[in-house]
UniProtKB/TrEMBL annotation:
The keyword Transferase applies. It comes from the Bacteria. Keywords: Transferase. It comes from Gordonia westfalica. This is Glycosyltransferase involved in cell wall bisynthesis. Residues 206-337 form the Glycosyl transferase family domain. GO terms for molecular function: glycosyltransferase activity. Coiled coil: none annotated.
């Protein structure tokens, strides 16, 4: 391992910068980790670039085509993604850090420098057919994803042995990488803005549960909403997305939809909720950690990233997986029986500290330094 020198250029390659979600905040923190960083993405738009990413992406080879599509859907461009990553100008980089969802590891073919893959997940839609519907631009997008699944799997498998180091954002993702890529991965949890989510003991607990984040099918907001209706529990939903209509149809009389809310409103909701719900299988799951950073416990499905973030009996509860109806019934039971006074805000916050941004940057500096 050696220290990164002032003249070393670190290239950060991301799948796409079209909306701001958890992986875009990872890119934002990667760009802040070293003195000289260039960010590359096949497509980008202003709404998808985090505020902390002060310099625009260097390479956006498919942006002209993306604009011709009206920036409505990136799905028609997916067949061109492997080509775009393979032709990125990465030759002069001291190291390349790839933020991978589907095709980004193809950047390993554009450089002789060591490539470190930070894997949010192997392409979920490529390996799990049940996830293709509703992803990437409706019915037409789902059809393209289905046709591309064989190509995506082959791209991932072919690139895997060329990668210098493989990182996973959770133990669950590391297991998928082992299964699909035949590579061992080091778990480096993603960075969470703990300074933006803090406890306030002066804020009283209120009699409601919180469901926060994007309302998209794979996050299974429908299960939380159905469970709240079955338990006759008050639920506040802060977020929006293409599953909104389905959620409204399932909602009981005690469910309130706020849509997208400001950070201050979200912070107050986290602080005052009895618990925050995570009903789907997340690769990692930023929202539960944000909740725990405010000292609020989490009730989550016991699969995926929740196994790394939620400590049963200490920072929340894990619901046993099962069929949809079984999960709804178990979650409804948890809502009926939940006692928030069993949880200590200070203890929950102390656990959340391990997901701090500074720790992520320190781990990434160590990994990249060891690769150079």
């Amino acid at each position: 391992m050696r220290a990164i020198m002032p003249g070393d250029r670190i290239a950060v390659v991301h799948e796409r910068l079209t909306e701001i979600a958890g992986s875009e905040h990872v890119v934002e923190q990667l760009a802040a980790t070293w003195p000289k960083v260039e960010v590359h993405a096949p497509i980008a738009r202003a709404e998808g670039i985090p505020a902390g990413l002060t310099d625009p992406p260097i390479t956006t080879p498919l942006n002209r085509a993306y604009r011709l599509l009206g920036e409505r859907s990136y799905a028609p461009l997916l067949p061109l993604m492997p080509w775009a990553f393979r032709r990125m100008p990465l030759r002069d980089a001291a190291a390349v850090v790839v933020s991978h969802h589907a095709f980004a590891t193809q950047a390993v073919l554009a450089t002789d420098a060591p490539v470190i893959a930070y894997v949010h997940s192997p392409a979920r839609w490529a390996w799990d057919p049940s996830l293709r519907a509703g992803e990437g631009g409706g019915a037409s997008g789902a059809a393209i994803l289905s046709a591309l699944s064989v190509v995506a799997r082959r791209c991932e498998v072919d690139a895997a042995p060329r990668l210098h180091t493989v990182l996973a954002n959770s133990s669950a993702v590391a297991a998928r990488i082992r299964e699909h890529w035949d590579r061992d991965a080091i778990v480096v949890h993603p960075p969470v803005d703990l300074d933006g989510f803090t406890p306030d003991p002066a804020v009283p607990r209120e009699d409601f549960y919180l469901l926060a984040g994007r309302l998209v099918p794979y996050k299974r907001p429908d299960l939380a909403i159905a469970a709240a209706a079955r338990a006759d529990a008050r639920l506040v939903v802060a977020g929006d997305g293409r599953a909104m209509q389905q959620c409204r149809e399932l909602a009981g009389p005690k469910t309130t939809f706020l849509g997208r809310v400001s950070h201050d409103t979200l912070l107050n909701l986290h602080r005052s909720a009895r618990a925050v719900l995570m009903p789907g299988i997340e690769d990692f799951g930023i929202v539960p950690v944000e909740a725990m950073a405010t000292g609020t416990p989490v009730i989550a499905l016991g699969e995926g990233g929740a196994l790394d973030t939620v400590v049963p009996g200490s920072t929340g509860q894990l619901i046993e997986p099962g069929t949809d109806d079984e999960v709804v019934e178990r979650l409804a039971g948890a809502l009926r029986d939940f006692t928030v006074d069993d949880y200590d805000r200070t203890e929950i916050r102390a656990w959340a500290e391990r997901f701090r941004r500074e720790r992520f940057r320190e781990q990434m500096r160590e990994v990249v330094g060891a690769a150079i």
